[in-house]
Amino acid sequence: MMRVLWVWKFGVTASILFYDYWDRPFSVQIRQGMRSLLSVRVVITDFCPGGPCASEPAHFDLSGTAFGAMASPGQQEKLRDAGVLQIQFARVACDYSGKTIAFHVDQGSNSNYFAAVIEFEEGDGDLAGVELKEASSSDGGDEWRAMQQSWGAVWKLDAGSELHPPLSIRLTSQYSGQTLLAKDVIPVGWKPGATYRSLVNYL
C-alpha cells in the first residue's frame, strides 16, 4: 500500500493532457515506477510547452519539492538529479488543508470587464459554471450573469457597462452540481492584481 504524503505541491503537464481532458487546475497522486511506496499529491496548474511535453500524452514537470517528496528519507537530492522518471499517476480530489476559495483578479480587469483566477477549490472543485452578481442598483444590476471560462482557472465577464461592487460570485460544481456562494467577495474599491478570499469551499 502506498504511504501518501498529504502535502500539496505544484507542477505542469503536457498540453495534450491538460487541454483535452482537464482544462483547469487539478490534483494527481504520483509515485515513481511500480515498486515505490512513496507518493505525492500534486496540484497541476498549467501546461508546459515544448520538449517531451509537446509529444507525450502524459508528461509531468514537477517542482523540486514535489520531486523530492517521492524519495526515500535522505535521498531527495539523488532523486531530483535523476532527470526523467517513469511514474504512475491517478487523478485525486484536491486537498488545500483548510484553505477557502480565493479570487485573484486579472491585471486586465477594469470597471467594465472582470476576470479572475479561481483558486483552492477542494475536493469536488471542478467548475461547470461561474456567475457574478453586482450590488443592487437602479439599472437592475441585481441578477446573476454567467461568466465565461477564458482558459484554465480564469473566468471572465465582459459586462459592457460599469460593474457595481461589491460583487458576489456563485460557483457550480461540474460533477455534483453543488453550488457555493461567495457573497460580496469582491469589495468596493477592488484592484486588478489583488486576491480576495471567500468564506466557502467544497468538502
UniProtKB/TrEMBL annotation:
InterPro entries (UniProt xref): Expan_Lol_pI, Expansin/allergen_DPBB_dom, Expansin_CBD, Expansin_CBD_sf, LolPI, RlpA-like_DPBB, RlpA-like_sf
A single Gene Ontology biological process assigned to it is:
anatomical structure morphogenesis
The terms describing its cellular component in GO are: extracellular region
Q: Which residues form the Expansin-like CBD domain?
A: 112-198
Q: Name the major location.
A: secreted
List the coiled-coil residues. Answer: none
- Expansin-like EG45 domain mapped to chain residues: 39-99
List localization entries: Secreted
Which superkingdom does the taxonomy of this entry point to? Eukaryota
* Record keywords: Secreted
Query: What family classification does the UniProt entry report for this protein?
Result: Belongs to the expansin family.
The protein in question is named Expansin B2
**What lineage does the source organism belong to?**
Eukaryota, Viridiplantae, Streptophyta, Embryophyta, Tracheophyta
